[in-house]
Write a structure and sequence with these properties.
Elements lengths: L6 H38 L19
Length: 63
């Protein structure tokens, strides 16, 4: 025997769907802001300059 979905069900469904979308949006914005803040801190840190190891070069060939 099939049951029909009542208007009360659809009302609750709509409220829960909107609430879930709102929570998802808020969490996405919060995590994006956190990621941007962490990346900007990493960029602004003064880093030690890269100094490559000295390489032994072969003497130039004279013709």
């Amino acid at each position: 025997m099939g049951t029909s979905l009542t208007p009360e069900f659809w009302e609750r469904f709509a409220v829960l769907l909107v609430a879930a979308m709102g929570v998802t949006l808020i969490l996405t914005v919060a995590f994006d802001a956190l990621a941007v803040r962490l990346l900007s801190r990493r960029v602004h840190k003064p880093s030690t300059p890269y100094l490559p190891e000295p390489v032994a070069h072969r003497p130039p060939v004279h013709r």
